[in-house]
């Protein structure tokens, strides 16, 4: 029965595997001067300037691009400042998109998870992809907010007792522990509806056909042939002794990589990308998303709940399929590094300065500690 379901779900998806071609590309230089955690907290500036930091924290990337202009001028990309600025812009836009209104308690529940301290990876990916191909932040911001609304819904529903049954999310109590399971279901559904409404009505200066394509890409990738399919198989495979790497890769490609693909492709489409650019960014986002989940699997068994800001070890307790469980921690780390390399290869040929944020985000995700 399980194999039959996997076969049927696999037939629904038309997405291929990431390109494994090699290219010389540009060098990515890493340093270990600061912590990755410090980038994504409101008090980041004070935290990152502190000298009392653990030696075991993740590397913060000061990514250098070697520009191809005359003279071969070297410029330094400040990833920390970039992320602080983009996260601030996204948070302000989210706050404005979901104001307190009647019913007040219900809107407070929507804002509880939406405005919590997250890494904002998908909305920043959306903005960076748009800017990579010549678009602007103001054009893509409604779509970036829509991505975060959908991500928040997924996290709220994932934490429910009927799903992953988690008590912590982003360093505080899960939504249903504060507002109850019934409100969590309704608030999540409302955020999805609002995501598409906001994206369609607040986006300015985009041709209707382009907007329809962007909405269609987003709906397809989060729907029954995308992220939902991955979640379904994840639930069905838990505790099954005959599940293997094929099922695990299908789950992670859909449950996680489809979200990063949606973010990158929607941003690229709204930014006016060519079909060739969209195809390359699709490969980048698939590798990026799978890498994100592989690292997440590793952190689940190597970090504490306090360090992660969510319940640690829950995948192990639920007997879920994970890469450390299937191939071990060391080989999981090797696989994550391989995916990072393949993702960055897809950005060769783009303007180095405009590609710097996506390259640095790939490095950050590979080395993140929460």
TrEMBL record:
Pathway: Isoprenoid biosynthesis
Cofactor(s) essential for the protein: Mg(2+)
PROSITE patterns, alphabetized: POLYPRENYL_SYNTHASE_1, POLYPRENYL_SYNTHASE_2
Keyword Transferase applies: yes
Annotated CDD domains: Trans_IPPS_HT
Gene3D superfamilies referenced in this protein's UniProt entry, alphabetically: Farnesyl Diphosphate Synthase
Record Pfam families: polyprenyl_synt (PF00348)
Alphabetized UniProt keyword annotations: Isoprene biosynthesis, Magnesium, Metal-binding, Transferase
PANTHER family: FARNESYL DIPHOSPHATE SYNTHASE, FARNESYLTRANSTRANSFERASE
Family note: Belongs to the FPP/GGPP synthase family.
Name the UniProt record assigns to this protein: Geranylgeranyl pyrophosphate synthase
Source organism of this protein record: Datura stramonium (Jimsonweed)
Gene giving rise to this polypeptide: GGPS1_3
